[in-house]
Amino acid sequence: MADRPVVALFVTCLVDVMRPRIGFAAAKLLEEAGYDVVVPAQGCCGQPNYNGGDAEGTRALARRVIATFLPYDHVVAPSGSCAATVKRHYPGLFEMGSDDRRRAEELAAKTHELIGFLHDVAGMREVSGKCTGVAAYHDSCSGLRELGLKGQPRALLGAVDGLELRELPDAHICCGFGGTFAIKYPDVSNKIVSDKTASIAATGADMLVAGDLGCLLNMEGKLHRQGRTVKAYHTAEVLAGMAGDDGAKP
């Protein structure tokens, strides 16, 4: 039997610290899709540095990520923002024609967001997970605008046995998180997320699903503070059948 292709799972900082169950769900889905999964020792992709204008700090982190992940067949992250940082922004950190630039471009070409990879590369159309409930899906800014992820998550969520997917009004509009944006402009961020939770409530869904944990935590926190009972799950948790009544517990 031929060796299966190897996927290096880029877990991401938020998943590692806040909801590691997403990482386990991602690994489960990738294995079901026919890949061997490895999880190299890893750190931040440098996105906070990049967004904050720290180019040199970003380059240092990028070189470490490149050295860690370049040997593998594919690199997959359960996050549109982290995947987009590697895929869209790493090459531009380095001078044209340099070895760093070549290596960054090589890594960018094999880096994918999880759901896009499962649908577009692995050809997944059916999922083993079951989940009873009504879900509203939120498009993260990075996933939608930088990686073109829109139909893929909806197609796979639509294949989940027992799940009713309802379209969220203005699903494409930012949730108000934006990393440090929520810290720098708290009043604006709060207004945006308040509008978002009102839209979620309007669907009558009992479940919120998104592909970026930063967005998910921002909306989940606001829903909780408003006293709403909507559960929030990462897309991977739902597809893998790991979305339960225990909410954010790993």
What features would you describe in this structure?
With 250 residues, the chain is of the alpha/beta class. The chain has helices at 13-18, 21-32, 47-51, 55-69, 80-89, 99-109, 114-121, 141-146, 151-157, 181-184, 186-203, 213-225, 235-239, and strands at 6-9, 36-38, 74-77, 111-113, 130-138, 161-167, 207-210, 231-234. It has a four-stranded parallel β-sheet, sandwiched between helices. Helix 12 (213-225) links the parallel strand 7 (207-210) and strand 8. Helix 4 packs across helix 6 (99-109). The radius of gyration is 18 Å and the shape is globular.
What are the SSEs and their pairings?
Elements: E1 6-9, H1 13-18, H2 21-32, E2 36-38, H3 47-51, H4 55-69, E3 74-77, H5 80-89, H6 99-109, E4 111-113, H7 114-121, E5 130-138, H8 141-146, H9 151-157, E6 161-167, H10 181-184, H11 186-203, E7 207-210, H12 213-225, E8 231-234, H13 235-239
